[in-house]
Description:
By secondary structure, this protein is an alpha+beta fold. Helices cover 35% and strands 24% of the residues. Strands 4, 5, 6, 7, 8, 9 and 10 form a 7-stranded mixed sheet that branches. Strands 15, 16, 17, 18, 19, 20 and 23 form a 7-stranded antiparallel sheet that branches. Strands 2-14-12-3-11 form a 5-stranded mixed sheet, covered by helices on one side. The protein is globular.
Amino acid sequence: MKRFAALFAALDATGSTTAKTAALAAYFREAPPEDRLWTVALFSGRRPRRAITATRLRDWAAEAAGLPLWLVEESYPVVGDLAETLSLILPPPTRSAENRLAGWIAELRRLSTLDEEARRAGILAAWDSLGGTERFLFNKLLTGGFRVGVSQKLMTRALAQATGQDEAALTHRLMGGWTPDTTTWQALITAPDPAADLSRPYPFCLASPLDDIAALGPVSDWAAEWKWDGIRAQFVLRGGNWFLWSRGEDLVTDRFPELAQLADRLPQGTVIDGEVLAWADGAPLPFARLQPRLGRKSVPKKLLAEAPALLMAYDLLEDAGQDLRGAPLSQRRAQLARLLDGLPEDTPLRLSPQLPATDWPALAAARETARENGAEGLMLKRLASAYGIGRKRGDWWKWKVDPLTIDAVMIYAQAGHGRRATLFTDYTFAVRDGDGFTPFTKAYSGLTDAEFAEVTRWVRAHTLQRFGPVRQVPPELVFEIAFEGIQASPRHKSGIALRFPRILRWRRDKPAAEADTLGTLREILRQHG
């Protein structure tokens, strides 16, 4: 654990990408294989399950520190991180433990199988043997909230430096549903891999937001298609089995059983990149109709009937077992069209249509009709582009329609976390409803640091009531809220839920009496829901 703590401290102490890569590479050369494997897992989001609730941890830490629970509760929002709060209030350790990272994770798993009293004794013993950064990291693993300021791309670069392997090949190895329980360091990283895991998808190619269309050059160099509002996915058909992977590397095959028929209608060795959409009567349904599937391991017949899914295909990454990612998009697209040509009409697979690209003004006009076509805007892809790894600016752009907006009043504020723990950055917004205000959404991004600080001072001076960490304030400050979608929601008091709400700007020029009404919000729902 000391070696892993030293790595974390080195990463936390620098903003230099070069320094972080060097620290990681040195660790991957020197640490025991089991610790290396768990480090790769942690840094790629494969965290162990939380062993105990945050409530119990606060209770036990307060008891061990001899502090009243209310003082611990007051300390948490000031520090902004539960793991760090507990590390700071606990007394110094009276002994030391030489357990490695993999050993402590094994201990956490053992504790999770015990009854509460035995679990409490084990955690108190661990706290008494760990200090400083090691205790902080142990708490992070306990709470299941381990995060570090290192991207998976940077970690993969460090792995390549440490092992002498190709970075792109390592990126592919790290895809899929592996865990430290299902593989070893050697099998995952260093062993020859002539027959790669048949289920493994390719790293996704991502688009960047478009800033300046004038910089793209001739329109004839580009392919334009709708930016579909669904679940980005790769359909993988190899070895007689099919797999569906989301962009977040979640295996979602079981959520979309209607796609199973594709395995009988496509050749083996096929990998298609596309968007899973809820689809009915020849048109996409709102994303909200698809969303209920994501939290389920099996999908009931009622949901299958209400929101049938299909795969909207827009790229062919593998054909007859041949990796096509290095070929130009124009070639991949042509092969994809040939592959899909002649499929039965009831096949839940469509070729994403390309829009005529005669000139940029025509595409700009088409973009304005995106919502009418169930899309979020346009995708622009250079015809000569290869299928890259991650977000590489220049070849793929997303040209989204302008967001929907509404002017709303802040009625509640809550402090943020981490570096924003001393600022009120999380707000609840309301619209006018008769003589009062009805809350309808929360948002916590969109203001500058200076504006967050100014709002914080205002909140402290105008607090009406406190509800734990939440403060009620008078409905006076007006903000323009942007959002990508809107839907009816019986779970919300307003009857409405927004998709991706964020603060667009602080409307200092508007009094609360000129904020939008619940009627305005319902009209937006009628037009765009």
